[in-house]
Amino acid sequence: MTTTAPANPTSTSPARSDTLLDFSDVEMKFPNGTVALHGVDLTVNRGEFVTVVGPSGCGKSTLLRIASGLERASQGTAAVKTDRIGYVFQDATLLPWRTVEANVELLAELNGRSASERTVKAQEAIDLVGLSGFEKNLPKELSGGMKMRASLARSLTLDPELFLFDEPFGALDEITRERLNDELLRLFVEKQFAGLFITHSVSEAVYLSTRVIVMSGRPGTIVDTFDVPFPMPRSPEIRFEAEFGKLVGEVSHALREGHH
Amino acid sequence: MAIDTRVDSTQRTTRRRSGSSRGMNVGLPIVVFFLLLGLFYLAALYYDKAKQLPFLVPYPHLILKAVFTEPAFQTQLVQALGSTLLVAVVGLVIAVVIGMIWAVIMAQAKWLESALFPYAVVLLCIPILALVPLIGSLFGYEFKSRVIVTVLFCLFPMIASTLFGLQSIDKGQRELFQLQGAGRFTLLMKLRFPAALPSIFVGLRNAAGLAVIGAVVADQFFQRGNGGLGVLISIENQRLNGPEMYAAIFTASILGVLVFVLFNVLRRLAIGKWYDQN
């Protein structure tokens, strides 16, 4: 992973220590007394795709909300060292009155970019996610998978250095989900953003990530971390390899152990 | 009645997909129309022959005759219609402006909503009749007072539907804007207002119908100046001019239906493309 900007001149080993997200002892306590996160240490470096798996209600979405700035940690430090953050929600959150094109342009529009710049950016992103030809369609005319592609394209227009995903494919059928996983990996290799991905699915986590983090709930803590050794780009076939299955098994085991 | 079936047929053609039995939907109202017309004749016959009070329920053809063959009455009817329409339109415009501003203010914060919504409900609960003498003394018995009554009639649906619409956005959409640092105004113009349009159009349609009702009712209280259809109805009633009174009543009814249709068409033109009404 080469970076053009000297983002961190003091770092000793540029590739690994180029940290984009650095959580240290993060705690999240809601006004009603619920402790959603406790003592969470987490870093995401350039070139990494980190996935967090955990049971519902373990605070993994809260982690993402803190990273994006939608929530503030009640204790600890949560540093994000870039302002180019992409955020993909659980739902596509497209605006139903805008065409695909206008939806994809939205973020650049809110950031005050010029109309011509917006059009170029949007078209590029639409092509990247494979929605060419659907620019003038309205969201209601798209399938769930296509809506998610539009949502991805919308975030891509920001050229994110750090891409946050909050269970984006959770509502999709398995075939669509796997296809979008492949697309996402392709984008990761091509666009070189760092990813922080939240999911319920262990195999999705292992397939996408360079590192898988297992959380347990109430309060949400990190119970285990797994490095995923498979090189990028990955082909869908690795899902059927013994080593892949073994790692999925280990992560699942850790998930069960942590979930009392 | 005839108008009603036409509404239905336009809906059919624009929403052909959902029309499983087109012929039935146009045919049935026509059948009902002729049934009602028959009943009307029977009632007219009864009041004419048995009661000897033909002006109470005149024969339908006499109503048509009054509308199409009496130039003096025609002039009166057209003037009354114009006056009612003017009161209804001015009242509606004022109600729409006040209602939307009121709703936008309430949508800005929970505490503003708690502070102001009760007064919107008060509007709904005022017995307007109780205010009539006061409005008359304060603003006279002409145009101004009629407009005020009309506004009172149609303000609440405008406030309620606009507020409901502005609050209908989902959390994800709001946060999407928040992440880009969008301010209140941007949020309102690019998200909340467009999202509220379906609901606003429902409010508009209801308010427009009530504006016609309000304008006719206001005529009953404030009879000076250029009287509208309500005034004409009272006058013809006092003169025992059955056909003329019915003509004015039907004109007011048809106006109400037309306004309803107009706002349905406007709604479809404005948001029909992206908004699925299920």
UniProtKB/TrEMBL annotation, chain B:
High-level lineage: Bacteria, Bacillati, Actinomycetota, Actinomycetes, Micrococcales
CDD domains reported in the protein's UniProt record: TM_PBP2
Encoding gene per record: ssuC
Organism for this UniProt entry: Frondihabitans sucicola
Transmembrane segments: 26-47, 85-105, 117-141, 147-166, 195-218, 245-266
Pfam families named in the record: BPD_transp_1
Record's keyword terms, sorted: Cell membrane, Membrane, Transmembrane, Transmembrane helix, Transport
Location of the region described as Disordered in the Swiss-Prot/TrEMBL record: 1-21
Subcellular location: Cell membrane
InterPro entries: MetI-like, MetI-like_sf
Gene3D superfamilies: MetI-like
Membrane-topology annotation of the record: Multi-pass membrane protein
Protein name: Nitrate ABC transporter permease
PROSITE patterns on file: ABC_TM1
Top-level taxon of the source organism: Bacteria
Domain ABC transmembrane type-1: start-end pairs: 81-267
